[in-house]
């Protein structure tokens, strides 16, 4: 818990294909790695410090703020 809200951080890798719907399985076949850190802001938004996902088929990153009650500034990059 911080002054801004609840801070969350997670990092890992594994074979997540079996947990996904059929239309997403091919994107995450084999080993997939993820790393994310951010804060669930007290006012209702989310501040994404860093977010990344990597598999053999996809690479994605994101950072910024998603605030349904104010300005949002989220940057997302996705490459297949």
Descriptive overview:
- The chain is mainly beta.
- It has one domain.
- It has one helix and five strands; from the N terminus they run βαββββ.
- It has a five-stranded antiparallel sheet, with no helix packed on it.
- β2 (32-41) and β3 form a beta hairpin.
- The protein is elongated and about 40 Å long.
- The N and C termini lie far apart (36 Å).
- 6% of the residues are buried.
- The model has no long low-confidence stretch (mean pLDDT 93).
List the helices and strands and how they pair.
Elements: E1 5-14, H1 22-25, E2 32-41, E3 46-54, E4 59-66, E5 73-79
Antiparallel strand pairs: 1-2, 2-3, 3-4, 4-5
Shape: elongated
Count of distinct strands: 5
Number of domains: 1
Q: DSSP strand (E) fraction?
A: over 45%
Into which percent range does the helicity of residues fall? under 10%
Mean pLDDT: 93
The class by helix and strand makeup works out as mainly beta
Descriptive tags:
80 residues; mainly beta; 1 helix
Short description:
With 80 residues, this protein is mainly beta. It is 5% helix and 55% strand.
């Amino acid at each position: 818990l911080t002054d801004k809200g609840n801070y969350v951080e997670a990092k890992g890798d594994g074979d997540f294909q079996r947990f996904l719907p059929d239309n997403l399985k091919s994107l995450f076949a084999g080993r997939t790695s993820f790393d994310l850190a951010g804060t669930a802001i007290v006012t209702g938004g989310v501040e994404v410090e860093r977010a990344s996902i990597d598999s053999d088929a996809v690479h994605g990153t994101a950072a910024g703020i998603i605030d349904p009650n104010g300005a949002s500034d989220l940057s997302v990059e996705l490459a297949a």
